[in-house]
Write a structure and sequence with these properties.
The complex is a heterodimer of chains A (about 170) and B (about 180). Chain A is of the alpha+beta class and about 170 residues long. Chain A folds into two domains: about 35 residues; about 120 residues, Alpha-Beta Complex (Sulfite Oxidase, Chain A, domain 2). In chain A, about 30% of the residues lie in helices and about 30% in strands. Chain A has five helices and nine strands, in the order ααββαββαββαβββ. Chain A starts with a helix and ends with a strand. The relative contact order of chain A is 0.17. Chain B has one domain. Helix content of chain B is about 75%, strand content about 0%. Chain B is globular, with a radius of gyration of 16 Å. The two termini of chain B are about 20 Å apart. The chains are: A alpha+beta (about 170), B mainly alpha (about 180). At the A-B interface, helix 1 of A face helix 4, helix 5 and helix 7 of B.
Chain lengths: ~170, ~180
């Protein structure tokens, strides 16, 4: 093999390595490739909603179509966070008469080992913008502009359980 | 008696290059806020070492030795094992590239060997970041930009190495080495 062919082979190796790194990373971080190959939405993993330990419903993609979307601009990264009010999601399955301002609402992610403990007073207040948004990976995440829940570190990604305790 | 793969003199030279990499990492800083910019120094040193001791494995040994030294000195941001492996892989990557490209005095070959060696180091950091879940600095900056930085500075380092080798040849260093051998 002459020198030109060796150089060409090395360039191909470098391009292949760089392409492989970028492809894996795109897939891992929910980039374009991930969205191309993994169907969006969270229909395959509906989020169960519990009231006093009893499951009262499962929030699936089809249910989200019944709700109106809202959003806000996240102050740290200036990105638009869009989704459905947690209040509206809970009211799909629970009667508002059964909820008092002190009712506890917990939004949890077992996979991330994170949770947010809220009161119905907070959740019901629309100006708090307590929203279940959709991540790039098609998983639900709890986002908000309410004090104490207005930083990314406090948000709950990959939500897999919503619990209401009276 | 079986002849040793590296002579004592060659091992001494390789240890010297390894120490030079660590010193360069500590002492030489470019005022650039770009990932991998230090590769301009150490890929140059690795390329030079691979020609000064023209045997497969020379660059790997320089990488491994500098990795051990750097790990003991506490260099790197993701722990000793990461430091050891990333330094060692830079040498192994350059060595493997030179098995294919052969001539480190050729500007293109040296630049490409520098890129491959530097990318091997990048891959170690990237894989460690994935396994540990610890965001390496380059993840925060954007992986594509960081990778481009590693490729650019790896190539510049390799090119600088080839320039150094040509200067050494003109100065008669390789003739001197032949006599010492």
């Amino acid at each position: 093999m002459d020198q030109k062919k060796r150089i060409a082979a090395a360039v191909v190796i470098i391009a292949a390595l760089a392409g492989a790194i970028l492809a894996v990373e795109s897939f891992r971080r929910g980039g374009t490739l991930y969205r191309t190959f993994i169907p969006g939405g969270f229909s395959s993993a509906c989020v169960p909603v519990f009231m006093d330990a009893a499951e009262i419903g499962r929030f699936c993609e089809a249910d989200s179509a019944k709700l109106k979307k809202f959003g806000f601009t996240d102050k740290a990264e200036r990105k638009i966070q869009q989704g459905w009010f947690l209040r509206d999601v809970i009211l799909l399955y629970a009667d508002e008469k059964n909820l008092s301002p002190e009712t506890r609402v917990t939004v949890a992610s077992e996979s991330r080992n994170k949770k947010a403990d809220l009161t119905w007073r907070d959740v019901a207040e629309r100006k708090n913008m307590i929203i279940l948004g959709m991540s790039k990976q098609g998983r639900l995440k709890l986002v908000s502009i309410m004090k104490g829940l207005d930083y990314r570190e406090q948000w709950v990604q990959e939500v897999d359980r919503i619990e209401v305790a009276r | 008696m079986k002849e040793k793969y590296f002579s004592t003199f060659q091992l001494f030279l390789l240890a010297f290059f390894a120490a030079l990499i660590v010193v360069a990492k500590i002492a030489l800083h470019l005022p650039l806020q770009l990932s991998g910019h230090s590769g301009i120094f150490w890929m140059a040193i690795i390329i030079v070492s691979s020609r000064v001791v023209p045997k497969p494995g020379a660059a790997s040994l320089v990488g491994l030795t500098s990795g051990i030294m750097a790990a003991f000195l506490g260099l790197g941001d993701l722990g000793a094992l990461n430091t050891l492996l990333s330094y060692a892989m830079a040498g192994v990557g350059a060595d493997l590239a030179l098995v294919l490209l052969r001539d480190p005095e050729n500007y293109f070959c040296a630049a490409l060997a520098g890129v491959i060696g530097h990318m091997a180091k990048f891959m170690v950091k990237w894989i460690f970041g994935m396994i540990a879940g610890a965001p390496a600095g380059f993840v925060a900056l954007g992986l594509a930009k960081a990778l481009a930085g590693y490729i650019l500075f790896g190539a510049l380092g390799g090119f600088l190495g080839a320039l150094t080798l040509r200067a050494l040849r003109r100065a008669g260093f390789f003739t001197y080495l032949m006599e010492k051998k």
